[in-house]
């Protein structure tokens, strides 16, 4: 029986290993992590992450050929294939701070592997890592190998949160990079044989190590670039009276472009896009490619601009101040169908409103009060470090209340900001919400999910990103 061990039980390691266990009943899969609470949650009825379909997969396999354990060294010792899916946060200090990836956790994992194993291993990079990480890991392993042979493979994940299980069950591609040596090619084939049990062979792409590593950064950079492009257009649409939905629909009909990732919004979030682009920027700078670095940095700058523009629009619309006013925040996760709040635009929007002394009432169906308070008090990039290295649960932000009902959040509010595209926000009783709000009542739709005309009929003053402006807003100063 082939034995797989995955170091890291987070958003990538947990779902990926669960699907491998489901599709490869002859493979034993163990997910290990030093976090006792996280492993305890994986072994309980309340999994540590929310992902549609994940619970069913875990329950089918757990205890059969899928196991979760804190006994890291034992399972690394026993495994044939070791996936490493630890955090690669953006550095917060030192060389490359704010851009470069921090490989501390990767390096410590590599050193632990070298210390405990007694037989040849295939080590698979599953984390998003900067190009040439495999080379660094290879050096650590070979210099500490005691005669053991290691083959390093890059197998980047291309999961979208909210659809991760479907992405794993029916991937558009699986990418495996390895050394162009007989041993490297043999290792690639071993991993390819695992995926081939359910993925069509023409969807399993093999490359050299560096191409696989760079492909992950490139894919996320291209996707984020599309979002920033349509968001830049949304500002122009508001200035000219165009409708960004109509523009993106027309553009998306061009078969060379296609319709995906062309929805204007308050901005992109998640654990990958910003981190990967900053990483790409840093690699370009290190290689003297200043113009290329500046080009990709602009994708991040437009994303920040969009969030700032949204906050400014809220404040300027409401008589240029939100001080003391109750603002309802509907949605805090960075996208629907996930509880993940990493780099969610909601953090910057909420901080911007709090800076003008607003009182916030926040509702999200999947994000806990503790997580929201933590996000609003944490420094940038701290979220990506292990929980025990993050600041302890902070004192609550007094101007913030977290509620578990959209109607409670909006009661007596002066304005409503929709920051996550949860389906339930499309079907709320907006007449009831309007009746219970302060007047004039404002809706700021950061995800373009409401029926603007219907809300205006009810009496709301509505701002929807990239849509023709409400007559009320036309008299307000254009803000950056």
UniProtKB/TrEMBL annotation:
Residues 328-452 form the UDP-glucose/GDP-mannose dehydrogenase C-terminal domain. InterPro entries: 6-PGluconate_DH-like_C_sf, NAD(P)-bd_dom_sf, UDP-Glc/GDP-Man, UDP-Glc/GDP-Man_DH_C, UDP-Glc/GDP-Man_DH_C_sf, UDP-Glc/GDP-Man_DH_dimer, UDP-Glc/GDP-Man_DH_N, UDPglc_DH_euk. Pathway: Nucleotide-sugar biosynthesis; UDP-alpha-D-glucuronate biosynthesis; UDP-alpha-D-glucuronate from UDP-alpha-D-glucose: step 1/1. One of its GO terms (cellular component) is nucleus. NAD(+) binds at residues 8-13, 33, 38, 86-90, 127-128, 161, 272-275, 342. The keyword NAD applies. This is UDP-glucose 6-dehydrogenase. It comes from Nelumbo nucifera. The lineage of its organism: Eukaryota, Viridiplantae, Streptophyta, Embryophyta, Tracheophyta.
């Amino acid at each position: 029986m082939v034995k797989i061990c995955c170091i890291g039980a987070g958003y990538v390691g947990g779902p990926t290993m669960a699907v491998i266990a489901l599709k490869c009943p002859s493979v034993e899969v163990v997910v290990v992590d030093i976090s006792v609470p996280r492993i305890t949650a994986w072994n309980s009825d309340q999994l540590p992450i929310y992902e549609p379909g994940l619970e069913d997969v875990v329950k089918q396999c757990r205890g059969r050929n899928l196991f979760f354990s804190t006994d890291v060294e034992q399972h690394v010792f026993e495994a044939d294939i070791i996936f490493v899916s630890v955090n690669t946060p953006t550095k917060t200090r030192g060389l490359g701070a704010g851009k470069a990836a921090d490989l501390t956790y990767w390096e410590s994992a590599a050193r632990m592997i070298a210390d405990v194993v007694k037989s040849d291993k295939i080590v698979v990079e599953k984390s998003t890592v900067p190009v040439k990480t495999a080379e660094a890991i290879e050096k650590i392993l070979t210099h500490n190998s005691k005669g053991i042979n290691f083959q390093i493979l890059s197998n980047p994940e291309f999961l979208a949160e909210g659809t991760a299980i479907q992405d794993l069950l029916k991937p558009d591609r699986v990418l495996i990079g390895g050394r162009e040596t007989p041993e490297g090619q043999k290792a690639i084939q071993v991993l390819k044989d695992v995926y081939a049990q359910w993925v069509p062979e023409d969807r399993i792409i093999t490359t050299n190590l560096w191409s696989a590593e760079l492909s992950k950064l490139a894919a996320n950079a291209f996707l984020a670039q599309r979002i920033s492009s349509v968001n830049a257009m949304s500002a122009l649409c508001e200035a000219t009276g165009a409708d960004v939905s109509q523009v993106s629909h027309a553009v998306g009909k061009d078969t060379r472009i296609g319709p995906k990732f062309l929805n204007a919004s308050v901005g992109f979030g998640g654990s990958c896009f910003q981190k990967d682009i900053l990483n790409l920027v840093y690699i370009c700078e290190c290689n003297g490619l200043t113009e290329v670095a500046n080009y990709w940095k602009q994708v991040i700058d437009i994303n920040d601009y969009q969030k700032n523009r949204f906050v400014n629009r809220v404040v300027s619309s409401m008589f240029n101040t939100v001080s003391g006013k109750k603002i309802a925040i509907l949605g805090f996760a960075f996208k629907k169908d996930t509880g993940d709040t990493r780099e969610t635009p909601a953090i910057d929007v909420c901080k911007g409103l709090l800076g003008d002394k607003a009182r916030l009432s926040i509702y999200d169906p999947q994000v806990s009060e503790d997580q929201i308070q933590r996000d609003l008090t944490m420094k940038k990039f701290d979220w990506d470090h292990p929980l025990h290295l993050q600041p302890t649960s902070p004192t609550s932000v007094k101007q913030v209340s977290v509620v578990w009902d959209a109607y409670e959040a909006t009661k007596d509010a002066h304005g409503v900001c929709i920051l996550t595209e949860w389906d339930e926000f499309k079907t709320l009783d907006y007449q009831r919400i309007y009746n219970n709000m302060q007047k004039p009542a404002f809706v700021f739709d950061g995800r373009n999910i409401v029926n603007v005309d219907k809300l205006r009929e009810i009496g709301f003053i509505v701002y929807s990103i990239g849509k023709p402006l409400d007559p009320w807003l036309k008299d307000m100063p254009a803000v950056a």
